[in-house]
Amino acid sequence: MTDEIPHNTEEKVDINVNTNINEEQNEEKINTEKEPPLKKNRLGPCQVCSTNESKYTCPGCSIHFCNLSCSKKHKEDTKCTGKRDVTKFVELSKFDLNTLRSDAKLKSDRSERSRKADNIDDHTFQFHPAHVKFVQRRIHERSIHMQLMPQGMTRRERNTTQYKNKEDKVFWRIELIFDQQLDENNNKVEVYEKHVDENVSLNTFLLQYIDASSVSVTGDSVGTSTLITHATTRDKLKNYTDRLAENNTSTCPFSFFMLVERKPPSSKPNEVLYYELDGSKSLRNSLVDKIVVEFPIIHVVLPSEKQSYQVITQEQIQETLQELKDRINERKEKKKQFQERKEQHEQKIAERQEKYQQSKNDNQRGSDTHRGRGRGNFVQRGRGRGGGQYNNSRGGHK
């Protein structure tokens, strides 16, 4: 028996073939169409490496860069913080909705910070040990404004500064950062000493690391390990040792800068300021009228790089000191107000307790007077008909 193919099956096959042909033609048309031209990069080439196309814009200085390494390099070269200057002047013609939102957010943030600061009293801070406050007072007597960080902070724990009463000297912890010298990990070389005599100059202190003929100037005894450490550090500071060898004068050719961590109110948000320290003077004289957070962290700079550090002016220093003085007086006033509120609160509690105790005593006396109204609680003594005493609670004569 032969199988017969129905006519409608042939029609379906023809339809499928035609559909496939149409799809192939459509795909060929799509492929033959010209691709749209690539959009030109509006940022242009990278302004750091000049090899790749820019992808990002720095919010702080508006420079265009292509990757993270270029971003880090431009921050090191220009001392840019990478943060947008929210107080930057904007022309009225360029003032838009985004600028308005930024100003509103800035005002809201400042108001919130001010509100939180007003709610903070001195008693909420953790107190420092007596010996730490003692060292701070001795330093303040030298017109050096030392500020302490809260207990537990890394910088607070690292501070080994001490005061020796017999010698009437402060022995500072000093950290040196050599900005123009990198180690094997591409980090700036850093050295520190735990106890440095305040009468030693910065030039003398520095030479023990870059000059083999110099001796240690720390307050500790010098051992073999200390000399080895200095020699090892000297090997890492080739840029500085070479520059010292080229120096024809007897003076130290390097400059010393210390970061201003409490900036004056008139400074810009992204502005980085430094104190310039005189290397020929002692530490005690160099730090006069300076605000030091825990201990000095000093940048040692080659002469060729000195101009890239913006130095704080004397007017800005006085402005900062006045602002610090006003804040200290404000904190004292807040502390005084807090003590007054505390005394008033304690007085109210004492009055409330006194009233409560008096009310409790009155209730006790009333209870003793009326005790016995209940059955068998009050003993009434008197004379009965026969002249004898009787007990009302018991109902009988004695």
Automatic annotation (TrEMBL):
Keyword Metal-binding: yes
Gene3D superfamilies: 3.30.60.190
Coiled-coil stretches: none
UniProt entry keywords in alphabetical sequence: Metal-binding, Phosphoprotein, Zinc, Zinc-finger
GO molecular function: zinc ion binding
Recorded family membership: Belongs to the BCD1 family.
Keyword Nucleus: no
Domain (HIT-type) ranges: 46-80
UniProt xrefs under Pfam families: BCD1, zf-HIT
PROSITE patterns reported for this sequence: ZF_HIT
Function field: Required for box C/D snoRNAs accumulation involved in snoRNA processing, snoRNA transport to the nucleolus and ribosome biogenesis.
Biased composition (Basic and acidic residues): 332-371
Taxonomic placement: Eukaryota, Discoba, Heterolobosea, Tetramitia, Eutetramitia
Name this polypeptide is given: Box C/D snoRNA protein 1
Record GO biological process: box C/D snoRNP assembly; maturation of LSU-rRNA from tricistronic rRNA transcript (SSU-rRNA, 5.8S rRNA, LSU-rRNA); snoRNA localization
Region Disordered: start-end pairs: 332-398
Organism for this UniProt entry: Acrasis kona
GO CC terms in record: nucleus; pre-snoRNP complex
